[in-house]
Amino acid sequence: MKVKTDKGKAADLRFLRPEITRFLFNIEQIVLWHCPWMEEVTITSGNDGKHLKRSKHYRNQAIDIRTWGNNPNFVYIDDFPSAKNSIIADLGRLLGEDYQIVWHNRDHLHIEWDP
Asked: Quick one: pLDDT band at residue 61, thresholds 50, 70, 90?
């Protein structure tokens, strides 16, 4: 899994709760299984970036994942509804009821631990 860097600054994952970090490998495998053309999965935000005031990001309980491939055509998972729905369903089974999975604005997937 890759971590986004922008202008020399990487997404901040240092203090993420273990309830999030323990699933990172599995999250990556689910996304790549349904979208092998993506080649890699990129975390774009941990407890950094701009989010709503009460966002779980600021409590180290959420991550955002890029939902488009790093290829010249910028293929979005959103363009493949069956892959998108399968990813959401598989992540829901993996993570369970204490997690929320939200597809945001076509370009990223938000996953948060919300017991």
From this structure: very high
Closest to 66 measured CA to CA, from 96, 31, 98, 99 = 31
Best CA proximity match to 80, nearest among 97, 62, 67, 65: 67
pLDDT, tens digit, 9 for 90 and up, residues 12-38: 788 899 999 999 999 999 999 998 888
Q: Is 8 exposed, middle or buried (0-12, 13-18, 19+ CB in 10 A)?
A: exposed
List the domain range (segments joined by +) for residue 68: 2-113
Rg, Å, the chain Cα set: 13
Give residue for tokens 């890699």. Answer: 40
Residue 24 is encoded by which pair of tokens?
């990172």
pLDDT value, residue 22: 95
Q: How many distinct structural domains can be found in the chain? A: 1
Neighbours of 5 (CB within 10 A): 10
C-beta separation of 15 from 60 below 8 A: yes
What pTM did the predictor assign?
Answer: 0.87
